[in-house]
From TrEMBL:
InterPro entries cross-referenced by the UniProt entry: HD/PDEase_dom, HD_GYP_dom, HDIG_dom
CDD domains given in the database record: HDc
Domain HD-GYP: 112-308
Protein name: HD-GYP domain-containing protein
Superkingdom, natural source: Bacteria
Organism: Sutcliffiella cohnii
Amino acid sequence: MRLLPTKSIKPGMKLAKSIYNDKGRILLSSGIPITKRMISTLETLHVTYVYIEDSRTSDIHTPSMISEPVRKEAMETIVSTFNEMKDLTLSKKFMLDQSSKKFRELIQNIITDMKNNEEVASLLTDIYIHDNYVFTHSLNVTVYALSIGLKLGLSSKELETLGLGGIMHDIGKMLIPKEILHKPGKLTSEEFKMMKSHTTKGYDLLRNMHTIPMLVAHCAFQHHERLNGSGYPRGLKKDDIHLFGKILAVADVFDACTSHRVYRNAMLPHEGLEILYSGSGSLFDKEIIEAFRKSVAIYPNGLTLELSDGSKGIVVGQNKDMTERPIVRIIEKDGVLLDTPFDVNLKNILSITIINCDLEDQQEAVS
């Protein structure tokens, strides 16, 4: 299978991976020839990239980070809990207290899935369309944060708390007016001020929950703080920011960059990582970025790459702790399609570098 931008796919191609809604139900099935209407639907749903069947890469494996039952249960719990958080009545607070117990069980299941999964993290493997970005974002950030925590060697208790912080970090957004939260264009200064208040609103809500650690409340409070003091809401610097706040800052920005949004296309993982590296040491913790780099698929399976030796290929596998050097199936050399593609492991050939992964004109290569 190949990963292609939606705007490059043509009628007659076949989806290699189904498109789901946030409840896990199939919206567009794999294996069926794509029509113009389907392409229009994908564009309307703001799906930036899709997996397309390709005979030369039919053996590519794109594993999910967490199992479908765990994902489905997590999304159902997030949606039901967050939707109840639209006012701060005593009954709502009690309900959140009760839901926190279920979240703990979910986090343990997510951690178990991740520990049993030998693959590096890639959430591009399954495409989910959501009515509210906050729901899917909360789960994605949790998975990314836990992948960092596992790489840093955090204890089981620390991972559980970090996971809770990931799921709850944006709960304050449920108290932001919908017209601001879902506005497709640029926010006004007053609207942006209101949007930024989600950190304080989330903190105020969570710190009064009896079953939620105070550190989880601080995850909501600190995930937009930056090392140089340029973040919000308090402008904290360096060691004044808790480790979990620093981890969630990296996970939050990466998922925001690589997710489909109404007002812009999703970036590819390597582009999201470049954003993080541009702020390494000034905005984001270097050690945390390095841990994340080792645990996320920078160039996901199915992506077409252009290499420095004049060849083009498709990513077919990953190297743990060296994800910037994937295994690539060479399909073209000096502009000529090869009759017999072959695989190269860039980890073992350091003289060859990745110079481009522009997907705009790759659809002609799909067969």
